[in-house]
Every structure is written in C-alpha cells, then in structure tokens.
Design a protein that fits this description.
It contains 10 helices and 9 strands. It is an alpha/beta fold and 281 residues long. Strand 2, helix 2 and strand 3 form a beta-alpha-beta unit.
C-alpha cells in the first residue's frame, strides 16, 4: 500500500488544526504548514500534548510568496509521494463593494486563489495515481452575499479553478474535490472578518444595512456548527477510494440554501435574502 502523506495549509487553527490532528490519528504523516513562527511553536506544543509528534511535521509556509513555496518544494522529495493536499489556508475580507479598496480584493485573491494555484502546481509533480486534492471553499463560493464580495468572489474563483483542475487530472487518477462549509465556529468569523471589515464611513449610504446585517450575524452565532464536522468530512474523503462528487456541502442549512438558490427564480431568491438579512432592527 502507498504510504499516506498529507499536506495541510493553515494548520495552526480552525479547520486546519483539527484536520491535521485527525489525519495524524488516522495514520497519515502530516506536513502541517504554518505561516507565523509563534503559531508554529504553539501548534508544536498542542501536537506534543496529543502524543502526535511522530506523525506531524511542521513546516513554514506563506502561500502568498513564491520564495516560501519554493522553500517547501525543496523538502518534498523526502516526503513523496504526497497522497493528499488540503488547501485550507484562507482569510476573509469584508465590506461593501463601493467602499472596499481594489487592493483589498487583490490581497484576498493572493491568499484564497493564487496561493492555492501556486502551491497546487508545486505539489502536483509529487503526486501519483490515487492522490487527492481537497480545496476548502465555502457556501460563499456558491452564492453571493452583501458586504462579503471580496471573500465571495475569491471562493467563486476557487470553485471554477477546481472544476477545471478536476477534469484535467482525472485521466491520471488524481482526484480533486471542493469542501463547502456553511457557518462554523472558527477564527475566520471571530477574527478575520471582524478585523478585516471595511466598515461604512460616517454618512455612508450603507450604514443602516451594515447595522442590520451585524445584528443578524450576532444573533446567528450560537447556531454556527462545530468545526470538527468538517475535519471528519476531510478524513472520510481522504479514505474514500473514489470521490464521485466535485462538491461536498457541510453545515446546518447549507444544502437547503443551495437548493433554494438553484431552483427559485432569481427575483424571489433575492427578496428572501434581503428580507432575511435586513429586516432585523
């Protein structure tokens, strides 16, 4: 049998850390990629406490820089073949499209899209028939939402890239799929969006909409899912012989929302979204 070696990006928190731990428990040798040294040290302690040090190797990686990716590439011969790549590293910028700087959109795409593309190109020569690539998308890659266009557009781009990639790699036995979580209790909500939100300026036409949306989001946080559900899905897909689907939706209400958007006339879907998000006082 092929030895099981996985690369997980953004491995120090949220989905990435849980995925790293669960894969290691399943017998994978996991290359846990972390951008900041302080986070790597913290992760190393948690790995040691979980008695998983033999299975997890922490490597420095910033997916937005070619130099960092090339440095990782030089180490991959020692790990090859790579049986699983989980492109999990990501961030979320938010704000209303009229007010978000184009530079912020570029930063969003550097992490969520171009970083995935460059790392995937780098890892693919070390993969063989039976290997898998799992790209962490989002329900936001299937439906647009107000004040989230930087994040949404990056996930839409990731969806198109992955769809093409899957077809290209199929003849070589390398399988590719998208994981599309709904809202979960992870740092992308607690940190990224809160800290990287372009809030409406004084006198902005979007102030009232923003306030209602924030009230709605705060009210929903208690319903956000347990991120361990996503980690379990990754392990299940990693162990499957055949990934017959391209997309794997996960989370409360995600399938219902996606089905409704796909089946309802656009004008009706739009009214539902506006009523749901903006009716809160």
């Amino acid at each position: 049998m092929m030895k099981k070696t996985a690369i997980v990006t953004g491995a120090n928190s949220g989905f990435g850390k849980l995925i790293t731990m669960r894969l290691a428990e399943q017998g994978y040798k996991v290359i846990a990629c972390v951008r900041q040294e302080a986070n790597a040290k913290k992760l190393a302690k948690e790995i040691e406490q979980a008695s998983l040090s033999k299975n997890i190797h922490i490597e420095s990686l910033d997916v937005t820089t070619t130099q960092s990716i090339e440095a990782l590439k030089k180490k991959l011969d020692a790990y090859a073949p790579i049986t699983l790549l989980v492109n999990n590293a990501g961030t979320a910028y938010a704000g209303f499209a009229e007010e978000v700087s184009v530079d912020m959109y570029r930063q969003q795409f550097e992490v969520n899209v171009f970083g995935v593309m460059e790392l995937t190109q780098t890892v693919l020569p070390f993969m063989t028939s039976g290997s898998k690539i799992l790209n962490m998308s989002s329900i936001s890659g299937l439906m647009g939402m107000p004040a989230l266009s930087p994040y949404v557009s990056s996930k839409f781009a990731l969806e198109g890239y992955t769809e093409s990639l899957r077809i290209e790699l199929a003849p070589f036995g390398i399988q590719t799929a998208l994981i599309e979580p709904g809202s979960f209790q992870t740092n992308i909500w607690n940190t990224s969006i809160n800290e990287q939100m372009t809030q409406p300026a004084e006198g902005s036409r979007y102030t009232s909409i923003y306030q209602k949306m924030m009230a709605y989001t705060d009210a929903q946080k208690s319903n956000f899912g347990d991120p361990r559900e996503v980690a379990e899905l990754v392990v299940t897909l990693a162990e499957k012989k055949q990934l017959k689907q391209l997309r794997f939706l996960v989370g409360k209400g995600v399938r219902l929302s996606f089905t409704a958007k796909r089946l309802l006339p656009w004008n009706l879907w739009e009214k539902i979204i506006l009523r749901t998000l903006l009716s809160k006082k």
